[in-house]
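Quick one, probably user error.
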C-alpha cells in the first residue's frame, strides 16, 4: 500500500507526550514567582522544539507540541471559553490503576454566562508548532460533549434553562474555533472525547440514569453540528478514551453500545480507539465501520513501560482486519503519554521506544 499523505497516518499518536524535568521545574518556578512569564515561554519554546525533533526522528508524520503548554488535556480549554467562571471548590475524582487508586483534581467551574470565543484557543501554540516542524502539525482539543458530560455539569440553569440552547451555542463556538484554526493553517485536528467511551460502561450509564441509553446519539449530533461547516482541507479525527491519568483509568467496556451510531453517524475522518487490554473489549464493534473511515488501533499501551512484541501487534491487526479492511486501519499508542502534566508511569526513553515500535510495525504491515 502507498504511504498516506492525509491524516490520520498509518503510524500516528494521540498527542500528549511526557514533559521533561526542566519544563516541569519551570512551571513550578513560574507558579512560585521565581521566574517571569517571558522566561517560562523561552523554556517552553525550547522544550517544544526538542519534542518536535523527537517525533520527527522517530519517523512520525503527524507532529504535536506534546501539549507541553497545558496543565491538562481538557480543563485548559474549558477555562479559556468565554462564559466559563472558575469557582473556589476543588473537585477530586478517583481513578483506578494496577497499583491502586489515584486522585485527579481540578478547580470547579460554572458556565455563568452565554458561551463565547474570546480568542482562538491554543492558536498561538499552534502557530509556534507550525514554525517548528516540517511535518503535518496536529492540534488536539476536547470534543464539545466534554462541556456537558455527565448530565450538564457546571451549567447555570439561569443562563441556559434549556439544554438545546446550550448545545446550539456550543456548536457555534466550536465552528468558530475550527474556522479560526484553519486560517492558521491547521489541516489536522483531533477532538478528544471520553463521553462516547464512558457510555459503553454499564455502570457509567446506570450512574447517569434517565436518558443515558441514548445519550451517545445526542452527543454525536452535537459533534456533527460543531464540525459541519469545517473548511475544506482540514482532517478531523476523534480519540475515544476511558480515562488517562498517571497510568490510571475510569471506565471499562467494549465499544458495542455506541458502535453503530458512532461509526455510521459521526462525520469524522478517523477514529483513534483504545485497544491495549481487555478493558476495551474485542474488535467485533468494528464491523459497523463504513467504507472511507479510518480506524487507528491503539494497541501500544501508554500506561505501562513494558514494550509490546511486534509480532503480537501484527497478529492483533490481522484480527481487527476480519471486521474492517486492513487498508482502513492504522496504528498508534492507546492514549496520550501525559494527558495531564504529571504524565504516566514511563520514562521518555520508554515513550520513544513505543513510538518507534509503532512506526516500524506500521511500515512492515502497510509498506
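Nope, works fine. Designed sequence:
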Amino acid at each position: 500500500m502507498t504511504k498516506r499523505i492525509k491524516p490520520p497516518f498509518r503510524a500516528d499518536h494521540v498527542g500528549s507526550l511526557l514533559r521533561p524535568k526542566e519544563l516541569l521545574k519551570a512551571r513550578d518556578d513560574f507558579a512560585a514567582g521565581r521566574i517571569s512569564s517571558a522566561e517560562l515561554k523561552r523554556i517552553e519554546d525550547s522544550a517544544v522544539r526538542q519534542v518536535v525533533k523527537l517525533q520527527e526522528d522517530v519517523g512520525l508524520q503527524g507532529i504535536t507540541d506534546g501539549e507541553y503548554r497545558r496543565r491538562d488535556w481538557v480543563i485548559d480549554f474549558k477555562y479559556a471559553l468565554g462564559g466559563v467562571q472558575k469557582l473556589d471548590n476543588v473537585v477530586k475524582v478517583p481513578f483506578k490503576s494496577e497499583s491502586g487508586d489515584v486522585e485527579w483534581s481540578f478547580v470547579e467551574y460554572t458556565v455563568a454566562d452565554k458561551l463565547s470565543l474570546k480568542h482562538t484557543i491554543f492558536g498561538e501554540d499552534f502557530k509556534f508548532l507550525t514554525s517548528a516542524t516540517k511535518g503535518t502539525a496536529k492540534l488536539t482539543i476536547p470534543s464539545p460533549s466534554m462541556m456537558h458530560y455527565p448530565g450538564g455539569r457546571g451549567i447555570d440553569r439561569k443562563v441556559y434553562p434549556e439544554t438545546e440552547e446550550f448545545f446550539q451555542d456550543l456548536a457555534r463556538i466550536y465552528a468558530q474555533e475550527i474556522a479560526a484554526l484553519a486560517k492558521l493553517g491547521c489541516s489536522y485536528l483531533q477532538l478528544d472525547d471520553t463521553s462516547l467511551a464512558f457510555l459503553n460502561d454499564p455502570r457509567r450509564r446506570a450512574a447517569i440514569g434517565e436518558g443515558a441509553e441514548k445519550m451517545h446519539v445526542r452527543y454525536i449530533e452535537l459533534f456533527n453540528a460543531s464540525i459541519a461547516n469545517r473548511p475544506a482541507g482540514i482532517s478531523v479525527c476523534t480519540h475515544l478514551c476511558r480515562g488517562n491519568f498517571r497510568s490510571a483509568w475510569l471506565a471499562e467496556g467494549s465499544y458495542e453500545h455506541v458502535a453503530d451510531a458512532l461509526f455510521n453517524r459521526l462525520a469524522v475522518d478517523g477514529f483513534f480507539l483504545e485497544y491495549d487490554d481487555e478493558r476495551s473489549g474485542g474488535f467485533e464493534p468494528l464491523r459497523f465501520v463504513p467504507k472511507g473511515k479510518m480506524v487507528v488501533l491503539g494497541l501500544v499501551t501508554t500506561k505501562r513501560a513494558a514494550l509490546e512484541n511486534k509480532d503480537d501487534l501484527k497478529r492483533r491487526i490481522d484480527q481487527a482486519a476480519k471486521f474492517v479492511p486492513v487498508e482502513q486501519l492504522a496504528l498508534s499508542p492507546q492514549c496520550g503519554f501525559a494527558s495531564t502534566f504529571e504524565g504516566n508511569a514511563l520514562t521518555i526513553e520508554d515513550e520513544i521506544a513505543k513510538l518507534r515500535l509503532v512506526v516500524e510495525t506500521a511500515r512492515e504491515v502497510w509498506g
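The chain has a mean pLDDT of 96.
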